[in-house]
Fold these 2 entries.
Entry 1:
Amino acid sequence: MMYLLIVAGLLVCAIQAVRSARLLSSALWLAGASALTALFMYLLGAPEVAVIELSVGAGLVTVLFVFAINIAGEEEGLSGSPLPAPLTIALILIVVVSIGWLALPALNIELPMLIPMNLSSILWGSRAIDVLLQIVLIFAGTLGMLGMLGESKPAKPHHKEAQE
Amino acid sequence: MNLSPSMLAVIAILGLLGVGFYALLASRNLIKVIVGLQILVKGSMLAFVLAGRLVGNVTLGQSLALTVIVVDTIVAVIGLAISVQIRRHFGTLDVKALTTLRR
């Protein structure tokens, strides 16, 4: 019953995040979806990643969205789809049905007992290169964001100085 | 009807993927597109954890989901920064207005 409530809440939050007219409420619905995803992952036996998703997905990303919406501002009148509606629905159905077809064998499996394992041993033992790449990626992302959010300076007229 | 947790998880994953794809295809607002991308990635993250749980090695699923969280956050950061710059330069967040590369 609890799983059912979480799934229903998750889907409602996701749909509201997409349907909501105001960007700010859209970001808040997204935070709700993030929190429910974290709860679901905790119940599936993944507490470490659930905590990270809760702090990063529902916390940091929401703050970033609110920050960006504050700078960019709300914009009215952006309704309507760039693609024709039948094409959109057909594409979504194709994707969802094909992934659902792949996931069919998982539907009837009962969840096996959890074997306690150490996450850090997997991260730093089997996937050490991935972790190092992630660290590089975080630095690259931060530098990229700083470069793009900074105010662009007006270009100096070099050619005039050269002529003089 | 008694739904097992794995069945409910698959329903949640498919629902999130569908809603995320809809937002990617049908939104004209750039920030809404990034919201859709976030929803899509939440579905894939849940799928990683469920797959790890089903094969009995949830820790591997967790580590993959952790990678997805990191990459997803960076994509959101860069996407939002690009959106802010587009708003500054073009004055709009409309996807249809970004046609300067079109001849």
Entry 2:
Amino acid sequence: MPTDIQPAGGEVRELSYAEAIREALGQAMEADERVFLFGEDVGVYGGAFGVSGDLVHRFGTERVIDTPISELGIAGVAVGAAITGMRPVLEIQFSDFVTLAMEQIVNQAAKIRFMFGGKATVPMVVRLPGGSGTGAAAQHSQSLEAWFAHVPGLKVIQPSTPHDAKGMLLSALDDPNPVLIFEHKLLYKMKGLVPTDAYRVPIGKAAVRREGSDLTIVGTSLMSLKAEAAAARLAEEGIAAEVIDLRTIRPIDFDTVAASVRKTGRLLIVYEGVKTMGIGAEISAMIAESDVFDFLDAPILRLGGADMPLPYNPQLEKAAVPQEDDIVAAARRLKREE
Amino acid sequence: MATTEAKAAPRERANQRPELAALDDATLREALRRMHLIRKFEEEAENSYMRGLIHGTMHLSIGQEASAVGTCLPLQPDDYILSTHRGHGHCIAKGAEPGMMFAEFFGKETGYCRGRGGSMHIADVEGGNLGANGIVGGGLPIAAGVGLSIKMQKNNRVCVVFFGDGASNEGAFHEALNMAAIWKLPVVFVCENNQYGMSMAIERASAVPNVADRAVAYAMPGVTIDGNDLPLVAATAREAVDRARRGEGPSLIECKTYRIRGHSKSDRNLYRTKEEIELWRSRCPIRRLEDELVGHDRFDRGTLEAIEAAANTEIAEAIEFAKASPDPDISELTRDVYAN
């Protein structure tokens, strides 16, 4: 249960992550006629991962729009619609395909407001299913979020629970900036408690999932769940790990991370994207450049994706990204360091 | 630019070609004013660069004034355009203030983009110009989105997107035209074929002789016209704009034209001949229109000179405004990276 659940009225019941996203989309489209969903196979097919589901039957083909396989083009459509008063939600079928849309997202969406001297806004939301674990191999399994966190003008979020998936998508739709939501494909079927109301979970705020005094584990997306599971095992050994779900990687909630590291003196960062030049490097550097560095009792550890394309074979695929056992082992090692 | 069409061509216009007869005197006067503004803007932009007043590069549209102005003639003030890296002309044609343009060019706080965008990113969002673009073909998919937005909001507007012959070989061109066609979007695609993508001649870059030949692949009307003929450009654009406004979908217009100056300031013209440049200089769209107007007694030389002189004065004042304007404050360096 997130420690920061917003007080939200209405009933709370169990929904899957995919259902929570669909509920947010439905509520947003009911509340605001500017909101529309588009992308490849989001209509009667219901989305490649079933996220859009029945939305086309509820809102019609004019607001749930199937597009040709034209990632660059549809990203540009989102930009054009956003700067002229709409609130587009674009689904990129697999986040890997965003490589075809980089021009519009990086050169146009991220920069238009600044380049135009603040005289335009680009309130678009891009949903990107990513991550490994489905046997989809190297071109359908990547975690590319750090690329976009390198681009000023974009916001990048990675909700890890059904509750946050709904609340952060609704926050993204309120946001006047382009927001990219990286949704881990293995989360879609995961269930969790979700209020019926159209509540918001803020962008830019990390969540402390578990409190502890021995070390801090910062995780993103699916890795924060693995970190929670690892922390439960570590507790049995007498190691009290504090687990932070970063939730937003641009802008990073450094205050929450810093407060935790000041308390624990030890930091482990876990993320699925390739370790090199990744989120872990950024957080490590932020610690090293700040007064929090003085609170460290041990070197910072990073667990990230291996420096390689994602393999097909299931054993190899697992070995290429951090697993619960890796987190437990790293935490033990960190605890032993003096 | 709002225009008044002649209800019926007056008797004295009977011997004029229909494209010219369709334009009344006030419209022609405004079209000439804007073409002169563009020409003078570009010449003064070049002078300013030579005198060290501008630190970036620029892409001048001298010779291409008729396609910019003619295309924008049938547009309403709240219609949209998207422009290119060679976009000063489009901006003026859509009705922008040269003073705010020069201020942007000089990097001043009073510029259209507060000095943050410069020549390649001038946008006049209030005036319907959604921006020049530093990426070849960058505006094409955005135009499809603007078209979709217009259609969803049912606000009866039209979006014109300018692009060059070089952009027609980008994947964005195909994706944008295809989407505009399948969704019948109110978008007019205007290719200013100035025959070179930087140094690459269109004959070497494209397997078909005309960019508009590609319209058949998107089941939309496509025409190739003389882009230095203002009345013809205006008549062609009007048909496409009217069609888009009626909800009948997009069109592709190819304006064959020529940029008299190089691609940018680094261009030494190694890929084309002096003779070719001189030939096109003789096809100046402004002089051509003026000669036709005098030949048909629509205007006398004195009137034409007065229009040009007034445009020159307007540009001189615009430069003075830009020079006198303040630079942005460095304390506001990161302003507008994000909207609040």
